[in-house]
């Protein structure tokens, strides 16, 4: 039965891919399994877990490649910030030959092999403009538009909808007084590739998360003169502690001790290894790093060498920005300095509320599931979320497995009905 089900699913999968290629979109396309929106790591993980259970799926991706954010909107020197065993997708570990912290290029290669291994073939250049549950036919209506050919539209009908567009679908660009007057370069980290173009220049990096810290280090390595805007308190931890990754050590200790005890232990080790970061303008929050992450999803910075450059004066720490002028920045403490460029390491946000209609699963405010992890993966009427846990690839893998198991229960009960549903040939 499972073998026949998989064969039938495969033929239907080929059918709607044929329709896309032939641009025959006059009538809705029925998808027997889930429609997954987004072909990043989260979407691939969900598709693979479903595939393992013999359930076909269709991934709709607005870009023309897998993991477009990793491919086009990350800097060249990027490596995974956590050890590879915490970042691998379900059912296929990283090759043993890869380093503990794989590079961006190695991670992208892994994703491509992963998609090939599970025969995952997304429909690319399909920008989802709306998805809404039809209470009459009890199916989701997912409407798409061609990314480059707006006149090419399609509508898909499915029983299950998996939202895998992630927490980083769109850039966050703060509005700063005087932005229009600044004559230098202003760009978001999504457009930053390397510090080579900024050699010898004064560059202000806005945002002190992992990306902002690493961009500052990259600028230093290319002989630029970076300054870092730090408005809020921030936890900076060594990437490795006691010969283990800080993340791995934390996960191990949490099995045996309360979170607050583990936090105090991590902060003690950090103080011994890094010193008092407050004397360099990097004060710590009152809550510990794990408690802060658990309550608010705020990730601590794992230092890869930036702090040493701050200590030796190669990276200056600045207070918040008050306003910009033609070639200068005025800070809230009254200081004024000249800069050639400003890099916004201000993060990303979800765009789900802009296209998911009639569902209260996601908050209109931040585009994240209203229910916190680990309960935010399932909504009503067959809608699911994967990759919104604020726990990186590990959280996405956990959600992908849960979603596949949940859909499998319905799939088995309705297998006969799905097999009898005709493949539409418009």
UniProtKB/TrEMBL annotation:
Q: Which SUPFAM superfamilies match?
A: FAD/NAD(P)-binding domain
Keyword annotations from UniProtKB, A to Z: Auxin biosynthesis, FAD, Flavoprotein, Monooxygenase, NADP, Oxidoreductase
Q: Is the keyword NADP assigned to this protein?
A: yes
What species is this protein from? Phaseolus coccineus
Provide the protein name. Answer: Flavin-containing monooxygenase
One function term, GO molecular function aspect: indole-3-pyruvate monooxygenase activity
Enzyme Commission no: 1.-.-.-
Homology family: Belongs to the FMO family.
Q: Write out the catalysed reaction.
A: indole-3-pyruvate + NADPH + O2 + H(+) = (indol-3-yl)acetate + CO2 + NADP(+) + H2O
Example GO BP = auxin biosynthetic process
Instruction: Check the UniProt entry and state the signal peptide residues, or none.
Output: none
Cofactors demanded by this protein: FAD
Report the pathway entry. Plant hormone metabolism; auxin biosynthesis
Which Pfam families does the UniProt entry name for this protein? FMO-like
């Amino acid at each position: 039965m499972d073998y026949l089900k998989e064969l039938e699913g495969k033929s239907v999968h080929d059918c709607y891919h044929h329709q896309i290629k032939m641009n025959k979109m006059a009538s809705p396309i029925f998808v027997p399994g889930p429609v997954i929106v987004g072909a990043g790591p989260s979407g691939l993980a969900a598709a693979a877990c479903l595939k393992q259970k013999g359930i076909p799926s269709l991934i709709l991706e607005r870009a023309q490649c897998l993991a477009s954010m990793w491919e086009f909107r990350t800097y060249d020197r990027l490596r995974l910030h956590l050890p590879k065993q915490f970042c691998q997708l379900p059912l296929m570990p990283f090759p043993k030959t890869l380093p503990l912290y794989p590079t961006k290029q190695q991670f992208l290669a892994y994703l491509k092999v992963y998609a090939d291994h599970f025969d995952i073939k997304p429909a690319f250049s399909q920008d989802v403009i709306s998805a809404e549950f039809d209470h009459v036919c009890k199916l989701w209506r997912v409407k798409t538009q061609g990314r480059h050919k707006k006149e090419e539209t399609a509508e898909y009908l499915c029983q299950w909808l998996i939202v895998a567009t992630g927490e980083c679908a769109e850039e966050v660009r703060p509005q700063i007084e005087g932005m229009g007057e600044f004559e230098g370069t202003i760009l978001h980290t999504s457009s930053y590739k390397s510090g080579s173009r900024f050699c010898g220049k004064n560059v202000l990096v806005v945002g002190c998360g992992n990306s902002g810290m690493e961009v500052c280090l990259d600028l230093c390595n290319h002989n630029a003169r970076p300054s870092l805007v730090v408005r809020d308190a921030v936890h900076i931890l060594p990437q490795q502690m006691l010969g283990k990754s800080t993340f791995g050590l934390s996960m191990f200790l949490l099995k045996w001790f309360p979170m607050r005890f583990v936090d105090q232990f991590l902060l003690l080790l950090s103080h011994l290894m890094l010193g008092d970061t407050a004397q360099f303008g990097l004060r710590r929050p009152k809550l510990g790093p794990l408690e802060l992450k658990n309550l608010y999803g705020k990730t601590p910075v794992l230092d890869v060498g930036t702090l040493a450059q701050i200590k030796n004066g190669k990276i200056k720490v600045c207070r918040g920005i008050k306003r910009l002028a033609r070639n200068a920045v005025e800070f809230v403490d009254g200081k004024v300095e000249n800069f050639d460029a400003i890099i916004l390491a201000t993060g990303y946000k979800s765009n789900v509320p802009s296209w998911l209609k009639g569902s209260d699963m996601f908050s209109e405010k931040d585009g994240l599931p209203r229910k916190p992890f680990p309960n935010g993966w399932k909504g009503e009427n067959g809608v699911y979320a994967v990759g919104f846990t604020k726990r990186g690839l590990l959280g996405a893998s956990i959600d992908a497995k849960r979603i596949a198991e949940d859909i499998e229960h319905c799939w088995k009960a309705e297998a006969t009905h799905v097999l009898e549903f005709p493949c539409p040939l418009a």
